Amino acid sequence: GAVVSQHPSWVICKSGTSVKIECRSLDFQATTMFWYRQFPKQSLMLMATSNEGSKATYEQGVEKDKFLINHASLTLSTLTVTSAHPEDSSFYICSATSGGGETQYFGPGTRLLVL
Amino acid sequence: QKEVEQDPGPLSVPEGAIVSLNCTYSNSAFQYFMWYRQYSRKGPELLMYTYSSGNKEDGRFTAQVDKSSKYISLFIRDSQPSDSATYLCAMSASGELTGGGNKLTFGTGTQLKVEL
């Protein structure tokens, strides 16, 4: 149980384009989903927290107009990187939790490369 | 000073060795402690979850929490090459609710290599 999937697993795009990443909880309802970014040899940095049906809460320093998050259902959250630039190239990982639980279950991650 | 400190390694051990991984933290409000394993280019996988102080054992893995010292450990017995990965400690404080889930603070991760 507690499986989280992400799609796509990797994406290469041109500078200036937008990229959408999906995060799905496959066997449980995710009341809360988290989006992280991880640079090589660094730990996970929380970008934002999204609750189903409400606006996401962004961490300090994360541009909400650049990283659009939608959590329209209890099993799906999306992260859209708008007007991507090479410095946005990173490993993006989502996690999900249900019913106020402390344990987060992570997706396999999406590697983004912006040329 | 970071809230959670973790030696990045790399830590190299022979197969069968006992591995000790550690994290220290400064926020006394942390109540929930987790260890995740992350293989290269993959998402973290939850290994152990403990609440407050004490020990927890699951197979070859033992997690220890010493809140008085603000120190947590993960022990791996009879280490195997398949244990080679990066191990991340994570913790959260009760009350840091975000409408349903607690925010986690991660260590930087320790890279472990178990050699044949």
Please give a structural write-up:
The complex is a heterodimer of chains A (115) and B (116). Chain A is mostly beta strands. Chain A has no helices and 11 strands. In chain A, the strands form 2 sheets. In chain A, strands 2, 4, 5, 6, 9, 10 and 11 form a 7-stranded mixed β-sheet that branches. In chain A, strands 1-3-8-7 form a 4-stranded antiparallel β-sheet, with no helix packed on it. In chain A, strand 4 (32-38) and strand 5 form a beta hairpin. The radius of gyration of chain A is 13 Å and the shape is globular. Chain B is mostly beta strands. Helix content of chain B is 0%, strand content 55%. Chain B is built from no helices and 11 strands. Chain B is globular and about 40 Å long. The termini of chain B are far apart. Mean pLDDT of chain B is 89; it is low at 96-100. The interface between A and B is medium-sized, with 31 and 26 residues.
Low-pLDDT residue intervals, each spanning 5 or more residues of chain B: 96-100
* Intertermini distance of chain B: 37 Å
Strand content of chain A: over 45%
What is the mean pLDDT of chain B?
A: 89
Shape of chain B: globular
Rounded to the nearest angstrom, the radius of gyration of chain A is: 13 Å
Report the major sheet of chain A: 7 strands, mixed
Measured between the Cα atoms of the first and last residue of chain A, the distance is 37 Å
Number of strands of chain A: 11
Give the topology string of chain A: H per helix, E per strand. EEEEEEEEEEE
Work out the helicity level of chain A: under 10%
In short:
The complex is a heterodimer of chains A (115) and B (116). With 115 residues, chain A is mainly β.
